[in-house]
Amino acid sequence: MSSDEPKEHAKANATDLIEIDHVTFGYDASRTILDDVSLRFARGKVTAILGGSGCGKTTLLRLIGGVHAASKGSLRFDGQTIDTRNKEQLYVLRRRLGMLFQFGALFTDLSVFDNVAFPLREQTDLSEAMIRDIVLLKLNAVGLRGAAGLRISEVSGGMARRIALARAIALDPECIMYDEPFAGLDLISMGVAANLIRTLNDVTGATSLVVSHDVPECMAISDHVILLAAQGRIVAQGTPDELMNSTDPETRQFVRGEPDGPVKFHYPARPMAEDFGINAGAAS
Q: What is the pTM of this model?
């Protein structure tokens, strides 16, 4: 943390673990992904971040993890401003974060056991005996202790997602970030994954951020829900009941999956007559 940072930032917020203040970010100068976004994520709670594709949900997780630096604004984790130029700080921060990637990102040439053991071997000096006990405990927590010796090619998609979750919690992170944890899962696996997210959050006291398109599952397990639109515009936020009962047209359209409403099917484009060279008289 820099010496000229405001003193109030040095003291951790008692309520919020993560604070995002007026953040703007784009992968290049031609397109802004997040524009002046401010959000708070409460300690010990499950917060769902919902929204259509391209609204900046996954980008938000990458900024929190220090993968990218904000163009403007600041992000704070436990009161400390995230500085992507400070490699030592990022190392400490990432020890406190767990990440479940959208498609698991498991190492296909390693066994189930070795996948979960990977962060323990890379980031700790624990003995192999201690690592073994931790890995089996984490696999047991997701119901897969019996699968420890299997290859990744031998497990189903739902099992792979649970293995990835066991790896994400291997270091007992304070914050677990889930990027589309329900994508590609059948209804039973989806229910199992949702129950695990809620149970792990309650048992460990972690703070959970769930990026998803799946409204029913998120509404069932979340304490707080944030609905984003293009460029990170906050459409609505509140409890699941508040969003489900909202009278705002854009919120209602998203949570109910209605095809017609403020969110249009067509991406903005010129009139068809211009693209196809049809003059106004012929078109009529």
A: 0.80
pLDDT in tens, 190-223: 888 898 899 989 988 999 999 988 888 999 999 9
Q: How far apart are CA 281 and CA 109, in angstroms?
A: 64
Instruction: Please check whether residue 52 is in contact with residue 79, taking contact to mean a CB–CB distance below 8 angstroms.
Output: no
Angle at 26 between CA 234 and CA 66, to 5 degrees: 90
Q: What is the pLDDT of residues 82-123, one digit of tens each?
A: 998 898 888 888 889 888 877 668 888 999 999 999 999 988
Q: Judge: domain 7-96+173-242, CATH 3.40.50.10490.
A: no
Q: Which two tokens stand for residue 104?
A: 């698991």
Residue 53, Cβ density class (10 Å: 0-12 exposed, 13-18 middle, ≥19 buried): exposed
Residue extents of the structural domains in the chain? 7-96+173-242
Which tokens belong to 217? 């599952």
